[in-house]
Specification:
It is built from 13 helices and 11 strands. It has helices at residues 3-28, 43-58, 75-83, 116-136, 161-164, 174-182, 195-200, 213-217, 242-247, 250-284, 295-315, 318-329, 342-347; strands at 30-36, 63-68, 89-93, 139-146, 151-154, 168-171, 186-189, 206-209, 225-227, 235-241, 288-290. The strands form 2 sheets. A 6-stranded mixed beta sheet has the order 7-6-8-5-9-11. A 5-stranded mixed beta sheet has the order 2-1-3-10-4, sandwiched between helices. The model is unreliable at 2-27 and 339-351 (pLDDT under 50).
Amino acid sequence: MNRLGQLFTRLAVASTLVCSAGLQPARAQQTWSIATAYPADTVAGRGVAFFASALTGQTGGKVLGKPEFKAKAGATDLVSAVQDGRLQVADVFGGSLAQLDPIFELPTLPFQVHSLGDSQRLTCVVEPLYRRALLRAGLHMLFISPWPPTGLWSRGPVADPADMAGLRVRTYDDSSAQVLTGLGMRATALPVQDVRPLLRIGALDGVLSSGDGAVGRSFHGQLPNFTAIHYAFPVSFVVISQTRYEALPDELRAQLDKAAEDVQRRQWATLPARIRENYAAMRLAGVDVNTSIDDGFRTHLREAGDARMKEWLARVPAEYGAAVKAFLEEAPSAQSTCPISLLEAQQGARG
């Protein structure tokens, strides 16, 4: 080869090396889709957005979080997509996971939790059981995202048991549908995406929902009454496949855990202000927000809740009953972060 040919060859090799070096970071960078069935302006949607940002920040841009709101896939499809690797991360409403394990019915059992403090204590106590149940399904729990307490939206006021009779009501899971049916309503579990069209044609008289953010605004025109019955303080679970999680390098896994921890803390800390904002927006839109429930009416509701809890306890493993007992016996705490749960302390370790 002449000297000119050798020069061209060297230039070509050098160019290849430079290009390869320039492409290496791009190949190392990943984009993770983080999906939720809820709009961006809901507690769940904000949690997804915060987590996408936290994930990108904690990993120094090695993993770019891409939030996806109002996913058309149902909860079952989102879980399946995470399990088989088609989706990296999903936010899934807790009650819809009851098909995996009855422990996920617990945060949606009616009239058992009476404050945000109680809701956080219950979450702390039961977290190890949530993690184990998800692990059995091939899922790793990143964090738990709380919802505002569930109320009853309706066309007319609901101030006593008689007002509930015959109301056609949407609920968010089969358990709540059964409870409201027992209270005299005609209740059906439906995805949140299906509610608005049914309201428009007059096929529903009410909706069991926290009415958070954009979801609540979609009810304003059709359902001018909101009764703060505090049916439950539900939660969502943000999950990744256990296989994907275990395959991550140690450093990246630690960064992922830190992002999840930060967002979970933020979700709980900002929830009281979020509830106040929701109620203010409802009143501004002309919704009659009833937060003063008659004692007799409340007793009627709690009796239905106690019956549902008794039924649940009769069909779940003994350790689930132990978790409820630990929650009921634990003194309320002023701590803002999750302490080690009583159940976990009794069993000796998280596993």
